[in-house]
Amino acid sequence: MTAERKGPLIIAVGSGKGGVGKSTLTANLAIALAKGGVKVGLVDADIYGPSQPVIFGTQGVKTQGLDNKPAPIESKYGVPHLSMGHLVAPGKALAWRGPMASGAISQLIEAHWSKDIEVLLVDLPPGTGDVQLTMIQKFKPAGAVLVSTPQDLALIDAARAGQLFDTAGVPVIGLVENMSGYACPSCGEVSDPFGAGGVEAAAGRLELPFLGRIPLDMAIRQGSDAGEPPAAGEGPMAAPFNAIAERLQAWISAKS
């Protein structure tokens, strides 16, 4: 990274639709980048449905204040991260209106991040609402990664998210296809319950890079629920995350 840059490079990970794997992708990308030597932090900007404490195995850990700012939570995977799940009781419902959610995202991004952090990944909530607008207006990302499952309904919403970034002048780094292909654990036959290739085709139509695909696999779900993200290991489930992280790291290097 160049010495002139003030603060970390902010990269948003988003999609218009919920349940497409933004949080899983963000966590595993952060871990893969850290393994590649990038000093990376992660903000869980899904104020109402924070998932990162579960994925990183830090659920129930409370952040400590430092200089009137929350301090990120360290993890055994080399990725400091911060979530509303570290600020409120586990499972607590946040009945907040937009301005409060906007204030929360500011608090998370302006937290007491180490000066060594080069890249800050922001795991966005679904949609194109208050959190997204606040982030773009106050902490304009250097780029955005869009994730979608292959089916048309998810792609339509991902396109809306892409349009928001494009309108705001935030370049879309590329698209990721999640839940792409399911290998039966009994017979090994691969099926496509959500379709296949839709995101890559959409990337081609939009003239955007296709960063890669992640299969629908029980091991990814089990690892995420157990606080053991697949990218932390060296097994076959780490490979797709590592490949996408390599492409993202190349973009980061070119941006620096």
Q: What do you see in this structure?
A:
With 256 residues, the chain is of the alpha/beta class. It has one domain: Rossmann fold (3-Layer(aba) Sandwich), CATH 3.40.50.300. Helix content is 35%, strand content 17%. The protein has helices spanning 22-35, 52-55, 98-109, 130-138, 152-167, 198-206, 218-225, 238-255; strands at residues 9-14, 40-44, 65-66, 69-70, 81-83, 119-123, 143-148, 172-177, 182-183, 190-191, 210-213. A 7-stranded parallel β-sheet has the order 5-2-6-1-7-8-11, with helices on both faces. Strands 3-4 form a two-stranded antiparallel ribbon. Strand 9 (182-183) and strand 10 (190-191) form a beta hairpin. It is globular.
Summarize the amount of helix as a percent range: 25-40%
- Domains (count): 1
**Widest sheet, order of strands:** 5-2-6-1-7-8-11
Q: What gap, in angstroms, lies between the N and C termini?
A: 5 Å
CATH architecture: 3-Layer(aba) Sandwich
Per DSSP, the total helix count is 8
Anisotropy-based shape: globular
> Which whole number gives the mean pLDDT?
90
CATH superfamily, called what? P-loop containing nucleotide triphosphate hydrolases
Count of distinct strands: 11
Helix and strand pattern? EHEHEEEHEHEHEEEHEHH
User: Helix/strand-derived class?
Assistant: alpha/beta
Q: Beta-strand level of the residues, as a percent range?
A: 15-25%
Which residues form runs of ≥5 with pLDDT under 50? 1-5
Provide the gyration radius in Å. Answer: 17 Å
CATH class categorisation: Alpha Beta
By CATH, the topology is Rossmann fold
- Biggest sheet, in brief? 7 strands, parallel
